[in-house]
Write a structure and sequence with these properties.
The complex is a heterodimer of chains A (344) and B (248). Chain A is mainly alpha-helical and 344 residues long. Chain A has 15 helices and four strands. Chain A has a single domain (26-38, 47-328), classed as ABC transporter involved in vitamin B12 uptake, BtuC (Orthogonal Bundle), CATH 1.10.3470. Helices cover 73% and strands 2% of the residues of chain A. Chain A is globular and about 65 Å long. The two termini of chain A are 26 Å apart. By secondary structure, chain B is an alpha/beta fold. Chain B has two domains: 1-83 and 169-248, P-loop containing nucleotide triphosphate hydrolases (Rossmann fold), CATH 3.40.50; 94-167, no CATH class. In chain B, helix 4 (122-135) packs across helix 5 and helix 5 runs parallel beside helix 6. The radius of gyration of chain B is 19 Å and the shape is globular. The chains are: A mainly alpha (344), B alpha/beta (248). The interface between A and B is large, with 38 and 54 residues.
Chain lengths: 344, 248
Amino acid sequence: MTIAATSPPARLAHPILLWIAQLRAWAFLVVLVAFFEIWARAAEGVSFLFNVYNIQSILVFATAPLLLALGQTFVIISSGIDLSLGFVMGLSSVIAAHASNYFTAELGLPPFVAMVAAILSGTAVAIFPGFVNGLLVSRLQIPPFIGTLGMYGVARGAAYLFAGGMTVAIDNDWYSAIGNGRVYGVPVLVIITGVACLVLHYMLSQTRFGQHTYALGASKPAANRAGIDIKRLTLQIYLLSAIMAGVAGAMYTGRFTAGAPQAGEPLLLDSIAAVVIGGASLFGGSGTIWGTIAGALVIAVIQYGLVFINVEPFWQFIAVGVVIIISVFVDQTQRRLMGGRQVE
Amino acid sequence: MSDAEPILSIRNVSKSFGAVQALNAVSFDVHPGEVVALAGDNGAGKSTIIKAISGVFRHDAGEILLGGKAIDFATPQEARENGIETIYQDLALADNLSIGENIFLGREPKRMLFGVLPILDRAKMAGAAKETMARLDFHVTRLDAPVAAFSGGQRQAIAIGRAIYWNARLVIMDEPTAALGVPEQRRVLALVKSLRAQGKGIIFISHNLRDIFEVADEIVVFRHGENSGKRKPSETSHDEIVKLMVGA
């Protein structure tokens, strides 16, 4: 072979720098916890971190937005967005509550069976909005922002209609234990969310589905020409995201022993914030489950921590908002400095 | 060089879109180790013929023979499975993925973790990337780096590497040098020559007559969807090709 195409090695950031960039959200989490620890000790003479109750509360607090954020991570990596998640969660919560009551009172099933059936029902209901979202975005070429915003309204209306405008109380000790119980001191909700994290991390980092999600977010034509069925992939991504919202809704019903249409209303923005703080780009193509977990914990620590040090609760919104803006700014700057294409 | 059986034979291929006759009875052959350049003005039919070959759409009349067998691919995947790789001007690389991940995009290899859990075989992808790029004399130090980190010419090499790895018989290159600076263009032309040396058949589309004269073994000129001439670079001139292109 006679070729003279010797290319110089590309100029790249040192691997350690890239590694640190990926850990940014975790580093921020550590700084945040340290901040609250120092504040709590100085002002109140108590520990923030070395307090089992605090840890449990923060973790439980983080579960609902994290469950939404896990699915949202896939959507955002594929360069979409799912605005319907909050009310899909509410719808699932209401349906799970109704199902629990129906299976217990009408069918007379044992509480444990009724609980399992209720969780499955609530999760299954989410398939409908997820499927419609996927069809809207993949087949009808409706921008994700608009398509899922429409579904936000539809799911919201449906949730309130099914709930009759109120919350739907349940009476099932097993179901309540899912939402409030502990196994060896670890809240069941945290265990379930932890398992969800592992499964979705596997899907994103170790399967073709995950790999193709990254490719789709980076370049639709590239994914298409590589033979990936991008319509089917898009549909699957929105289905996954809705199903995770369904799980979150079913868990909500257990935690509050009631289904509520507005269960996920404040959580939608938190879920997007968690993904973005976790290092994903809203332009698609980047993001990790580990980053999203850190992002969700950052938000939970800010919200819980500010209450713990007796700051007025409204500051939470300001703090989370500022953190989102800073995260995106740092991300942009970092991309400019590190990932910029080398021009010869 | 053209003693061997042609890899690809285009025989009187026609294609129309509604009332527009995009291709009218076009014919040419591509042999192993031959670079056939398609020259022509915008809308002359160069892109239409390569899309018919690569399965983007079907032709209306005439025959496309691949290795002597008539083909009529319904999808680009089908064409790719039969050894036809197309390298587009805009490259179609996923910027956030590594070289190996791009080479294997859509066909990722897997291995078993602990014998039960299927996971992506990243070591295999990186190994194949290193080996393939070395065949193009492109030695990468960071195999895990996203391809966005590489220059235009290097990215062109990656797209060509994908064709080599999957053992393409026919490589179609649509304006491979269009978006590049001069030194990078030289490198890509060298890559085309190395593909030829490996016995691939190459269809090379370019607006740049200098590039065409440098690498082509045969120049097929298109005008208004028809063959307006076939020349060997050694037996023609820039002026003659331009005349064939514009019909003057």
